[in-house]
Specification:
alpha/beta, two-stranded antiparallel ribbon, binds zinc ion
Amino acid sequence: MRTLDVLSQALDFGNALFDLLLAPVCSVCGERVEGRAGLLCDECLESFEPIGRMVCPTCGSRATTRVKNRCRECPPRPVWFESARAAFLYTGFLPETFYMFKYSRHPELGEPLARLMFMTLRDVFNDAFPRPDFLVPVPLHFLRRFQRGFNQSQLLAEEFGRLAGIECRVDLMERVRYTPRQALQPPERRARNVLGAFAVCDPASVRGRRVAVVDDILTSGSTVNECARVLREAGAASVQILAMARA
Ligand SMILES: [Zn+2]
Ligand SMILES: [Zn+2]
């Protein structure tokens, strides 16, 4: 009996140690979380601020007053996409979360982030923002993809597509030119930085279809606008943009 007690105490101790070492912690702030590792804690999640419904109909920026079809945040003309919608403002712990996701290589964050994006944008489809025929993630150049190990926009698009029941096509567009990071470019140089960076690999699948380009974070909108330009040139009937956040 005694031996059993000692054994069970040792086991309890072992379990406690195991819990401590392998306790699931929030990927962003390191707080302990209930459930699976790689998730986000409540505090981080609650810091994400949905953009809401009052947005610029073109670029999806939060609007404080009603705007007609353009606002100051819209990309410079010509705008090749019909309409962009993002789920969250780029505030709270969202920048840290994306840093962890992209640069500290936590691809397992893609699924919970896409789920949040879907829950926030699930009612987005209506007459003004029709349901697309398929989703196309913004492609990464293969060198950058090799360096990072995954394309964050693809992970978001695949899971969002699965939840929304919209096909995700990763084979339709590729990045044919390596470009310096947009975030490091001054705003006036961003459109030129991505000019000619993308190509449609399969124009026949694009012709006459409604395509939604999925990006992680919209800033100037130059990258998605260039994607939209090549898709329209390949014959897409319309191009919309879906993003996790609008900076
Ligand atoms: Zn956290
Ligand atoms: Zn706008």
